[in-house]
Amino acid sequence: MVSAALLARCEIWLPDRQGELQAPAQIMMHTVPDAAIVKWSFDKGQVAGAGTDTLPGVPYKILPLTSSGRTLGLLIIEPSNVRHLMIPEQQRLLETFLVLIAGALERLELTRREQLSRLAAEREELRNSLLAALSHDLRTPLTVLFGQAEILMLNLSSEGSRYVHQADELRRQTLSTIRLVNNMLDMARIEADGFRPQTDWIALEEIIGSALKSLEGVVSARHVRLDLPREMILLRADGPLLERVFVNLLENAQKYAGQGAEIGIRAEKRADTLKITVWDNGPGLPAGKENQLFDKFTRGHQESAIPGVGMGLAICRAIVEMHQGEIYAANRPSGGACFTIILPLPPAPALEEPLQEDA
């Protein structure tokens, strides 16, 4: 229809998914457009060719198809007579076609994006459902296995058996697997619609202490350097969820830095925020991948023999952001990894003074 109305051969060039312009499968024009000027017109969003100041001697005209400030493609026309393009009626007709084609392309693009977004959401929902179901089915037998391993270790220890170490290793590995399963279950729960953290006032020292206690046998509290403010720091937080953040960070530090590495937690109170740093003096993080570590199923060292599925840091970010905070990773100048958490610090409630007995 466009060709008949404009008395010209027409082609529409569109970019592929990499943004590179592609010629139509069916070539309509006698003259092959210059690739350089076609790219220039698309990148700049400006007309070129016949009747313009850019390459006016060619027998075709390149017109950008723009909508909402974006160039969606190009309409290239090769008229039977270039002078036809100078007729006012033809120019108005051409402008109308440009608007209609650009509008249609924009609608197609929006439809494609909506479809991709919907498919991505459906895939994510399915994956979360599978993770939740798998984690739920695994947690009960793993808990039973952990209890039996603990009983076995205690019995062997009381008998002075030489297999106590193996029983303890079985217990520790089972506990590590339970934490991994809990991570997957928590991530599915956090990403479920309608999930809200159960916040209350809780002391920072209590959260860190609970995390260290849950890691007994994995991370020794004696080997973790604590640098916390002298005053009590109260956070408005979901205690168990925030505890999970420290458990994951400390367990990661132990895994990747090694048993003999130094691990530390430092907290610094600011005006209305709390800065918490979990650091180690291990080999550090892969350069340039610090931000990617917080993506689901992403691990710092892909070929590492260290167990894990890459969920721990993703859960840390989800929990911290749920508390209106932020978390980021970096390498320490002196060596090792450093994870920094920034949490809001609202005014804490006044502590009730103890009643004094009458003298």
Topology record:
Layout: H1 2-6, E1 8-15, E2 21-22, H2 35-44, E3 48-49, E4 61-67, E5 70-79, H3 88-159, H4 164-190, E6 200-203, H5 204-214, E7 224-227, E8 234-237, H6 239-257, E9 263-269, E10 273-280, H7 312-322, E11 326-331, E12 337-344
Parallel strand pairs: 7-9
Antiparallel strand pairs: 1-2, 1-5, 3-4, 4-5, 6-8, 9-10, 10-12, 11-12
Count of DSSP-assigned helices: 7
Total E-strand runs: 12
The count of domains is 3
Name the assembly state: single chain
Q: What does the average pLDDT come to? A: 85
Structural class: alpha+beta
Largest β-sheet summary:
5 strands, antiparallel
Shape: elongated
- Nearest-angstrom radius of gyration? 32 Å
> What is the N-to-C order of secondary-structure elements (H for helix, E for strand)?
HEEHEEEHHEHEEHEEHEE
CATH architectural group of the largest domain: 2-Layer Sandwich
Measured by DSSP, the beta-strand proportion falls in: 15-25%
In which range does the helix fraction lie?
A: 40-55%
CATH superfamily of the largest domain: Histidine kinase-like ATPase, C-terminal domain
Low-confidence stretches: 355-359
Strand order of the largest sheet: 2-1-5-4-3
Can you tell me the CATH class of the largest domain? Answer: Alpha Beta
- Indicate the CATH topology of the largest domain: Heat Shock Protein 90
